[in-house]
């Protein structure tokens, strides 16, 4: 039955009931008419056979609560073959009337059979509307994205590293190679969605909603004899080790996207992406500040006071010599250029040194004597005089 038939036929009139008739009344009338026009009771009567088919067709619609609701809504919107605008009538008075067949792909003067309202309503009446979709080829599906984690050393995060990740992902079933069908059989295009994997339903008779097909679960294909391994899904779990390059300069808990390294697609669709959350172990002495490395360097009281040249380590293992100016205060900063983390452009950040002046906790008598002589020979202002100034 076409969608046009749904709108032009008055099924209530065929069954001899009103539009407000209850389900029991409709069933009772149908049974009465079915017995009256049944072919077994009217052998050779073509008109009775036609009437029996008409009654059965009518009851198939209004005897089903869901179909009846859709039928009533469609008749309310489009009338009995004509579409009427509010405030008008079929012949004038501000309204207009035209054949509903033009809406449902009957074809215009140019002979076109596509683009009608039947395409818009789609399967509103259980598949009665004509569809203009000509291709029944199932659409490609993109593979799923995969999430994983990797833990690397501090130096590896600074310089970059290639790590092997063992992952379990959703891949095409190795037995049926992704078809979902038993060996020796092939899947069929889903008739409900015509291979698109999507279905459109009309809510309240007006609004259309598209969602994955309930028959094929969005695959666009159905199988009569499912694969014994994947049970018809076409997917299977696979474990593999992949070599992944972690770029230099990666930060702790940074999420890296590797395009096309996720699960394989279906029917020629692209692979998904791989997302790796990187965890960086802390270093015994070095820290990080963006693109720079940091290092706390202890220096003696005399080195800070008199100045000195000292050696400090770098992450690559080769020490560098740093000059400490005389009179350096505790917490002073020094910079060693080019000894930091690798930037995106291939250059390096710096190594930032924080000097920590160490004051001895215990002194020998000789050291105390020398320091007393130093203190007596020093002429310096009261360092705390500013604390007692007027407010």
UniProtKB/TrEMBL annotation:
<dbReference type="InterPro" id="IPR036869">
    <property type="entry name" value="J_dom_sf"/>
</dbReference>
<feature type="domain" description="J">
    <location>
        <begin position="10"/>
        <end position="75"/>
    </location>
</feature>
<dbReference type="GO" id="GO:0006260">
    <property type="term" value="P:DNA replication"/>
</dbReference>
<comment type="subunit">
    <text>Homodimer.</text>
</comment>
<protein>
    <recommendedName>
        <fullName>Chaperone protein DnaJ</fullName>
    </recommendedName>
</protein>
<dbReference type="Pfam" id="PF00226">
    <property type="entry name" value="DnaJ"/>
</dbReference>
<comment type="similarity">
    <text>Belongs to the DnaJ family.</text>
</comment>
<feature type="binding site">
    <location>
        <position position="230"/>
    </location>
    <ligand>
        <name>Zn(2+) 1</name>
    </ligand>
</feature>
<dbReference type="InterPro" id="IPR001305">
    <property type="entry name" value="HSP_DnaJ_Cys-rich_dom"/>
</dbReference>
<dbReference type="GO" id="GO:0008270">
    <property type="term" value="F:zinc ion binding"/>
</dbReference>
<feature type="zinc finger region" description="CR-type">
    <location>
        <begin position="160"/>
        <end position="239"/>
    </location>
</feature>
<keyword id="KW-0863">Zinc-finger</keyword>
<dbReference type="GO" id="GO:0005737">
    <property type="term" value="C:cytoplasm"/>
</dbReference>
<keyword id="KW-0235">DNA replication</keyword>
<feature type="repeat" description="CXXCXGXG motif">
    <location>
        <begin position="213"/>
        <end position="220"/>
    </location>
</feature>
<dbReference type="InterPro" id="IPR036410">
    <property type="entry name" value="HSP_DnaJ_Cys-rich_dom_sf"/>
</dbReference>
<feature type="domain" description="CR-type">
    <location>
        <begin position="160"/>
        <end position="239"/>
    </location>
</feature>
<feature type="binding site">
    <location>
        <position position="173"/>
    </location>
    <ligand>
        <name>Zn(2+) 1</name>
    </ligand>
</feature>
<dbReference type="InterPro" id="IPR008971">
    <property type="entry name" value="HSP40/DnaJ_pept-bd"/>
</dbReference>
<keyword id="KW-0963">Cytoplasm</keyword>
<feature type="repeat" description="CXXCXGXG motif">
    <location>
        <begin position="173"/>
        <end position="180"/>
    </location>
</feature>
<feature type="repeat" description="CXXCXGXG motif">
    <location>
        <begin position="190"/>
        <end position="197"/>
    </location>
</feature>
<keyword id="KW-0677">Repeat</keyword>
<comment type="function">
    <text>Participates actively in the response to hyperosmotic and heat shock by preventing the aggregation of stress-denatured proteins and by disaggregating proteins, also in an autonomous, DnaK-independent fashion. Unfolded proteins bind initially to DnaJ; upon interaction with the DnaJ-bound protein, DnaK hydrolyzes its bound ATP, resulting in the formation of a stable complex. GrpE releases ADP from DnaK; ATP binding to DnaK triggers the release of the substrate protein, thus completing the reaction cycle.</text>
</comment>
<feature type="repeat" description="CXXCXGXG motif">
    <location>
        <begin position="227"/>
        <end position="234"/>
    </location>
</feature>
<keyword id="KW-0862">Zinc</keyword>
<dbReference type="GO" id="GO:0009408">
    <property type="term" value="P:response to heat"/>
</dbReference>
<dbReference type="InterPro" id="IPR012724">
    <property type="entry name" value="DnaJ"/>
</dbReference>
<keyword id="KW-0479">Metal-binding</keyword>
<dbReference type="InterPro" id="IPR001623">
    <property type="entry name" value="DnaJ_domain"/>
</dbReference>
<dbReference type="GO" id="GO:0031072">
    <property type="term" value="F:heat shock protein binding"/>
</dbReference>
<dbReference type="GO" id="GO:0042026">
    <property type="term" value="P:protein refolding"/>
</dbReference>
<feature type="binding site">
    <location>
        <position position="193"/>
    </location>
    <ligand>
        <name>Zn(2+) 2</name>
    </ligand>
</feature>
<feature type="binding site">
    <location>
        <position position="213"/>
    </location>
    <ligand>
        <name>Zn(2+) 2</name>
    </ligand>
</feature>
<keyword id="KW-0346">Stress response</keyword>
<feature type="binding site">
    <location>
        <position position="216"/>
    </location>
    <ligand>
        <name>Zn(2+) 2</name>
    </ligand>
</feature>
<dbReference type="Pfam" id="PF01556">
    <property type="entry name" value="DnaJ_C"/>
</dbReference>
<feature type="binding site">
    <location>
        <position position="227"/>
    </location>
    <ligand>
        <name>Zn(2+) 1</name>
    </ligand>
</feature>
<dbReference type="InterPro" id="IPR002939">
    <property type="entry name" value="DnaJ_C"/>
</dbReference>
<feature type="binding site">
    <location>
        <position position="176"/>
    </location>
    <ligand>
        <name>Zn(2+) 1</name>
    </ligand>
</feature>
<feature type="binding site">
    <location>
        <position position="190"/>
    </location>
    <ligand>
        <name>Zn(2+) 2</name>
    </ligand>
</feature>
<dbReference type="GO" id="GO:0051082">
    <property type="term" value="F:unfolded protein binding"/>
</dbReference>
